[in-house]
Design brief:
The chain is mainly α. The protein folds into two domains: 50 residues, no CATH class; 37 residues. The protein contains four helices and two strands; from the N terminus they run H-H-E-E-H-H. Strands 1-2 form a two-stranded antiparallel ribbon. The chain is rod-shaped. The structure holds zinc ion (ZN). Zinc ion (ZN) binds next to strand 1. The site of zinc ion has 7 residues, from strand 1.
Length: 95
Amino acid sequence: MSMSKQRWLELMRDIDPPSLTQDEIDEGWHYCDEMDGLLANSNDPNGDCFCSLRKGVEQPIPASVHETVAIIGAVSIAAIVFVLVVWIMIERALK
Ligand SMILES: [Zn+2]
């Protein structure tokens, strides 16, 4: 059973909210400290909650991290090559 909008609103109401069921907890629902107590699902790939990362549950590194590392690597190599080319050109010009 997944979370309906109706159920979510019920759980988020200020006065006398019902408790999360075991099923809902098992699905990853919790009142998230990182999101100001908002009811969130740590198993939702589109969600903003990363509690499960801190709890030590193994999660794959997002593709964007790999991309960032690759871009930084490529830029560094390009910078080194550029410096070498300029240095060789200066050397030749001075001869
Ligand atoms: Zn959370």
